[in-house]
Amino acid sequence: MIVHLHRLVPFALVLVICQCAGPLGGGNMGGPTVEERKAAIASESSGDYFVGRRYYVQKTRFWGYVRRPKESWNRSKLVVMREDKKRTPDRYPEYGSGNQRYGFDQNYEYKLRGYYTGKKVYDPNSNQILPEFMLTGYEVLNRQPGWLFRPDDRYDPYRITLYSR
Asked: 93 in a domain, yes or no?
């Protein structure tokens, strides 16, 4: 079989451009303007709690991003939850249905009670070593907060796409 390289070059070039440019088009998470998000974070009350954003990617075991009140999401940490004192809201079977399945609360924003244990935990499915957060309580703040780091954030349930850049 003869392969004509000149025919493959345009196709390869398109692949390279798409990979370097990132996702085509805008984000798929919706949400507020940058100014509205900054104002909302600035208006958060101070206190002994954390703000968490659930980030579900299939087969991973991290929970999501956690930050202090009034801090930007760019300062948040991707964490693994320790559930000795309180189970996470989505502690259901992975293949349940509706709100009775693991990860049903993708992108929910929570007010979290708890603390960092000081330990690091290895998540083999994402190949990351992440801080461990001991959960002691939570309440839902927002079920549809929109984008996390930037308005062009794109969520994909099969691979890690949301990270601070």
From this structure: yes
